[in-house]
Design goal:
By secondary structure, the protein is an alpha+beta fold. It has helices at 3-6, 27-39, 53-61, 83-92, 109-127; strands at 19-22, 46-49, 73-76, 79-82. The protein has one domain (3-131): Glutaredoxin. It is built from five helices and four strands.
């Protein structure tokens, strides 16, 4: 068994099951994950907090910083995506009508990311934050790659 297979990425197969990395203490992010679970009828996505061992390992594997998280990240068969691009790629795989948001990809990324950055900058002020990442509900726990949340 290789070191990678025994490590935090042992259960990750982003080519088949895209992984959404999120800020584990952000109330807005938790709301977004609950939304994704509700509107991902086929269970395509897996989830992990950015600051979990799985999250940090995926960030390192793709050359992204493992501190100062200002974005959620999507890791899929096409690579790693951040900010508005990640949000649109996630929306593309959701049930209708949410998948129609993919059409916004025609908006220049610089403009999309500026709007994303504005929300990200004030997310704790507007939505608040938790002291720690909460444990997911039992009915969706298998979709979370970070087993320490159990």
């Amino acid at each position: 068994m290789s070191d990678v297979a025994a490590g935090p990425l042992a259960d990750v197969d982003a080519d088949r099951r895209p992984v959404v990395l999120f800020d584990g203490v952000c109330n807005l992010c938790h709301g977004a994950i609950r939304f994704l679970v509700r509107h991902d009828e086929h269970g395509a996505f897996r989830f992990a907090p950015l600051d979990s061992p799985v999250g940090r390992a995926l960030l390192e594997e793709h050359g992204l910083p493992t501190e100062d998280h200002d974005s959620f990240v999507l890791v899929d068969a096409d690579g790693v995506h951040r900010k508005s691009t990640a949000a649109l790629r996630v929306a593309r795989l959701l049930d209708s009508p949410w998948n129609l948001a993919w059409a916004f990809r025609v908006v220049p990324r610089r403009l999309r990311d500026a709007a994303y950055d504005l929300v990200a900058e004030y997310r704790y002020y507007v939505f608040g934050k938790k002291d720690a990442c909460e444990v997911p509900e039992p009915e969706i726990r298998e979709r979370f790659l970070e087993r320490s949340l159990e």
